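Risk register update: the risk of archive-format incompatibility is retired. Evidence:
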Amino acid sequence: NAEYMGGDLNTQTYPYMFRFVGRRLFSLDTGVKLTGQKIRRTYKVVDVRQHASGNGFEITLDGRAVVTPTRQKLIVPTSQLASMIALEWDMQDTEVKHQSMLLTTLAATAIDDVGTEPLKYMREILKFIETDAVCVRNDKPAGLVRMQNEVWDPLVEFTHQKFGIRPVVTTELVKFQQNHQLVDLFQDLLTDFEPFEMTCVHSLVNTSKSLIVALAVRDGFISAREAATAALVEESFQIQQCGLVEGYHDLFLAKTQAKIAAASIFLHLLKKRD
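Archived output:
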């Protein structure tokens, strides 16, 4: 859905953005352990099949199921999501570059980590409430303030309309305390998230420094492109004022856009239950 994803950050073009980032390494069920060394691509055929249990879909390489670093089967809920993960594997050239496979990373993180320690990840997400970028703002220069208001005020209004509570917005980080009713509401909301959803929201929060941005993406209020814009307000202002620094701004923007696109697409495809 190109409109949902925001034009260029869609399911057709997203894999080509994933050239810079990644956190996890993966192995196949051949017993080969990947520890950071260069790995040649030895497989030819990438495919998707329904798991034998009938619950979920797995990715195969020459008929062998992909597994996570803890040796769990990489099983995801929808065939569309499995197909996009399979595309990441199929796009690999002579070497398998796991840092370019962000959907694979999200799926494995959900299975190995978030699924086993959901409270840990929920606490990490909730820590951002008191420093949410949408709510804790700069009071100067005037151009930055205008940009913050233009991009972030609609997200404050979204939160108010969606949850019935208006977030507190401030320029005083030291004395700031978010509305406790909103904090409690977010905590209750996160408690109901299943691991794949929690993993995507966790990634979005860490990338955008905002739980409000992450929830707006989850609910389809903003596209991946708009979420990246919200996450990059200060960087965009710096570029306007001083110009783009090659080797820094361009790479940082690409990393941010790719990570947000991956989590956004993952969430979108989670909803397409077969």
